[in-house]
Amino acid sequence: MEKNNLMNTYGRFDVIFEKGIGTKIYDTNGVEYLDFVSGVAVNCLGHSHPIMVKALSEQSKKIIHVSNYYWNTEHIKLSEKLIEHCDHNKVFFCNSGTEAIEGALKLARKYGKSQNTNKDIILYMDNSFHGRTMGALSVTGQEKYQQDFLPLIPRVKKINFNDIEDLYENFTNEVCGIIIEPIQGEGGINAASTEYLKEARKLCDKFNALLIFDEIQCGMGRIGNLFAYKQFDVIPDVIPIAKALGGGFPIGAVIANEKAAKAFVPGDHGSTFGGNPLGCAVALAVITELTDGGVINSVQEKGSYLKEKLNGLKNKYSLIDEVKGMGLLLGISINTSPKEFTNLCFRKGLLVVTAGTDVIRLLPPLNVTVEEIDTAVKILEEAIKELS
Ligand SMILES: *Cc1c(COP(=O)(O)O)cnc(C)c1O
Prior knowledge:
Layout: H1 2-5, E1 17-21, E2 24-27, E3 32-35, H2 38-41, H3 50-62, H4 73-84, E4 90-94, H5 97-113, E5 121-125, H6 134-138, H7 143-146, E6 156-159, H8 164-170, E7 175-180, E8 183-184, E9 190-191, H9 194-207, E10 210-213, E11 238-241, E12 252-256, H10 258-261, H11 277-291, H12 299-316, E13 320-326, E14 329-334, H13 338-347, E15 350-351, E16 353-355, E17 359-362, H14 370-387
Parallel strand pairs: 3-15, 5-6, 5-7, 7-10
Antiparallel strand pairs: 1-2, 2-3, 4-12, 8-9, 11-12, 13-14, 14-17, 16-17
Helix pairs in contact: 3-11, 4-11, 12-14
This protein binds pyridoxal-5'-phosphate.
Pathway: Amino-acid biosynthesis; L-arginine biosynthesis; N(2)-acetyl-L-ornithine from L-glutamate: step 4/4
EC number: 2.6.1.11
Cofactor: pyridoxal 5'-phosphate
């Protein structure tokens, strides 16, 4: 029925998941799996967290949706909570990652054009991933995603990730913004160097362009801070977030400083569903649990623990080339088929996802337990042994 009814856009595992509790997820036959995918860095509190269930149920009894023609309390409360944890003071709400990117790109264009009509070039990184809509796709540095959808938006330029020389070569007064994932997720868990990000900051200041950090995957606690940039000692102007923001409920946001945000005036941007009370109430509950609830406090420690175990496997088996990433955004690059590897893990009861061409990505919920990490490592080792 799926083949008949649904557009053919995904390769799927042969399974239907029926329920989940925490890091554990169950298929329709009752088989249990450990979920180290978390809906690709979405289920930061695991499955069916009582705090989310409560927020969904309570808010839905009050008001679910109201147009942006009217005030609502929930989006103000959520914006307050987000602003508390960053150096920025303005938020625009949307519903997904790619929409947050669109908002950021539009903001950069408007910011540039208000200085000079030619100031509209957006620089982006080789191997990046920013989403599937035409604007986000235009700054996604992977040919496989772009090639069948040309022409994309003009005045965007791909540069080499972490290459300071290339950055200087392409940064001119016509650049209005540059978009970088502090850690490339989909592209293979590649961290930007602090030095590179500092140079990008310097050039943005010099040419009065906006520095955009896509924290859709690496933000919201995934690497140990609610905002990933805090680990890099560089403050961006604009931060698109989504994925874990709603813990599984679709919501995205563009965070910006005053300087950038004031480029938008009424009518410049909008979203029918953006900032709806239900999404904001759930996200507020999620963020409050991540921060005040202390979930984020243990991310570094658990991440280091898992990374250490993975390095142990690397020292033991030549199948692993490298262990990459920070916090609970980790990857192992392997010299065998990643597809085969994830399939084998799946059959053994562990969900993992590929990234780039040769990386297995590990994205457990942020409240994963040490015992669950141990079990996952055991399954990974069995899979490695079988494929070695
Ligand atoms: C997932 C992702 C996006 C796109 O988010 P969607 O909600 O799928 O549109 C953009 N940027 C990064 C870094 C992502 O990981």
